[in-house]
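Fold this sequence, please.
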Amino acid sequence: MTISDLETPALLIDLDVMEGNLKKLADYSQKHRLRVRPHTKTHKIPALARKQLDLGAAGLTVAKVGEAEVMLAAQPPDVLVAYPIVGRRKLERLMQVAAKTSITVSLDSVVVAQQLSEAATASGIEIGVLAEVDVGLGRVGVPPGETLLRLIQDIQRLPGLRLDGIAFYPGQIKSLDEEGEQALKSLAQMLERILDDLRKTGIEARIVSGGSTPTLFHSHRLPGLNEIRPGTYIFNDRNTVLSGACTFEECAASVMVTVVSTAKPGQMIVDGGSKTFSSDGAAAGAPVSFGRVLQAPDAVFTKMNEEHGFIDLRRAGQKFNVGDRVRIIPNHVCVAMNLHECVYGIRGDTVEQTWRVEGRGKLQ
């Protein structure tokens, strides 16, 4: 089967590019002795998680219990749930997963730790815990200093839990321009202070887990960091390029769509809108467009309805006809993957793989 046989919209994965991205991270992490627990939120496919494990990943990262349940099919030796798990039913399901593989949870409150402890104790299972520290994003995580130390000490007192270390996510660093470089240096200094505080208190952080996509290949510059949890790197997307973390040639995922209307001069309508690409905008400061049209890089993907994509061709210097097919690199591939039931692995024009997106919609 070739890509011309596929119905559109179709999310295509260039296997050569994806395999290059996987090898690039494997080589980098091995060179800098960084443990990798890739986040499956991007691909949501156990077969791709297995590829990551076969290339040396120590385990997998998920956000939700439903994702952990799906990723058991990849036979991971370890799963990190990088999200506070709240509620009896979710914890019961998590313990069922923990009966099949080692589970670690990152959290930032004693309330969550207590619930996790009760579930683990009732099941006779030990759960690893990473204390989440906020390093500037202001999303989850306690502040460094006394609050973090108290959280860790409370975790250590709870039965059924094993303190493995700390976790953080510096998502506020969007690119490594001059401002980003300074932010990365400040983060390195903050991390040094955090780990020094822990040592002085006699606390061992066996795992220091962090990083983000824009800083991925600069992770070795953060002292004490020994685990990274990249997700987007397997495919990359337009926003990853805009952050300076990759090139368009390293973007493995694109959505093939069909031109369905050229009734308005200087514009074409394609058969993919917000139900195909998601409505995620471009990274801060970047030109407004919902993706990059590979056949016309100067075209602007200006607007979307649910099933319609509006593409301004006035600066593209090209004309398209109804029935033409184009491929668009989405702004945010993780969300786009969640909108598709299956995706197609291609090499050239040949479709080599069809994968169901088994983690799609696993929100609970």
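Residues 17-234 form a domain with the TIM Barrel fold (CATH 3.20.20.10). The mean pLDDT is 96.
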